[in-house]
Design a protein that fits this description.
By secondary structure, this protein is mainly alpha-helical. It has helices spanning about 25-50, 50-65, 70-85, 90-110, 135-175, 175-190, 200-240; strands at about 10-15, 20-25, 250, 260-265. The longest helix has about 40 residues, at about 200-240.
Length: about 270
C-alpha cells in the first residue's frame, strides 16, 4: 500500500551546508501542499485500483505542486512511484525512484556520520531531557512541537524502510552481480531496523539466505564473460604473429603461491 508563485511570494532560507533555498510564504506553501496532497490522494486511489501507470502520472503532478524544499513529502511521493514501477515490473525505474526517496530522507535526517562532524547536542540525543523555556500556552506549544518532531522522525524511519524494501526488490529482480550485491546491502540495513513489520522481516531474512549463492554465481558468470572477452581481444592482437592466448600458460608455484607464465608454441 502506498502513501507557482511570483518572486515576491518567496523568501530565502539557508540550510546547513547547503546553498540558499527560496521558500514560499506560509500561506502559499500551505496552498501548494494542499493541492499536492489532493493529487496524491487521487494517485493512491488509482494505485489501489491497479491503474499503476495512471497513478504515476498523478504522483508526478503531486511532485510538481509540492514545494521542492519539502524533502519528506517529496520522499513519500518518490517511494510511492517506486511501488508503482514494481507493480509494472519496471525494475530499473523502481530502483531509481526508491533511491531518490532515500536521498531526500538522508538530507532530512542523515544516517551516515561525517568523520569531521561533531557529536550532536544533548537535545538531539534519544532519551535526552529537553528544557521547556516558556510558560502556559507557550510551554504547551513547545511541547506540541517536540511531539510533532518525534512523530516526524518515526515517519521518516517508516518511509526509509519502505523505500529500502522497494529498492532491494528492484535490484534483486534486475539481477547481475552489482545489483544483487546492492540488494544484499539494503537487506542487511533493513535487518537492523526495529520498526520493520513482521512480514517484511520474513522477506528480509529469506533474501539474506538466498542472495549469497546468487551473488557468487553472478560474479563467476560475469568474471568468466569478462575473461572470455579479454581472451578474444588478445587473440585478435596475437593472430597476425601466428600466436594465440592458448600458447601462454599460467602455472602456480606451490612454494610461493605465485604464478609464472610459460610459453608453449606446440607442435
Amino acid at each position: 500500500m502506498v502513501e507557482g508563485a511570483s518572486k515576491t511570494d518567496l523568501k530565502e532560507d539557508t540550510l546547513p551546508g547547503a546553498t540558499k533555498v527560496e521558500r514560499f510564504s506560509p500561506e502559499e506553501e500551505a496552498s501548494l501542499l494542499q493541492q499536492s496532497n489532493a493529487q496524491k490522494a487521487d494517485a493512491n486511489k488509482l494505485f489501489t485500483s491497479s491503474r499503476y501507470s495512471e497513478a504515476i502520472g498523478e504522483y508526478d503532478k503531486a511532485l510538481s505542486s509540492c514545494p521542492n524544499y519539502l524533502e519528506y513529502e517529496i520522499a513519500v511521493l518518490k517511494s510511492n512511484i517506486s511501488a508503482c514501477h514494481l507493480k509494472l515490473e519496471d525494475w530499473k525505474a523502481a530502483v531509481e525512484s526508491a533511491t531518490a526517496s532515500l536521498e531526500g530522507l538522508e538530507r532530512l535526517q542523515p544516517t551516515k556520520k561525517d568523520n569531521k562532524s561533531t557529536e550532536p547536542d544533548d537535545e538531539g540525543k534519544e532519551g535526552a531531557v529537553v528544557e521547556i523555556e516558556g510558560d502556559g500556552e507557550e510551554a504547551e506549544k513547545e511541547l506540541a512541537e517536540l511531539k510533532l518532531s518525534d512523530e516526524r522522525k518515526e515517519d521518516i524511519k517508516r518511509i526509509r524502510a519502505k523505500a529500502l524494501m522497494r529498492r532491494a526488490k528492484g535490484k534483486m529482480e534486475q539481477g547481475g552481480w552489482g545489483n544483487l550485491a546492492g540488494a544484499e546491502e539494503d537487506y542487511k540495513v533493513l535487518s537492523k531496523m526495529p520498526n520493520l513489520p513482521v512480514q517484511d522481516q520474513k522477506v528480509v531474512q529469506a533474501a539474506l539466505t538466498t542472495l549469497p549463492p546468487r551473488i557468487n554465481a553472478a560474479k563467476n558468470a560475469e568474471m568468466g564473460e569478462m575473461m572470455g572477452k579479454l581472451k578474444e581481444l588478445g587473440n585478435g592482437i596475437l593472430k597476425p604473429f601466428g600466436l594465440s592466448t592458448d600458447m601462454f600458460k599460467m602455472n602456480k608455484d606451490p612454494s610461493t603461491g605465485g604464478y609464472n607464465m610459460s610459453f608453449d608454441q606446440g607442435k
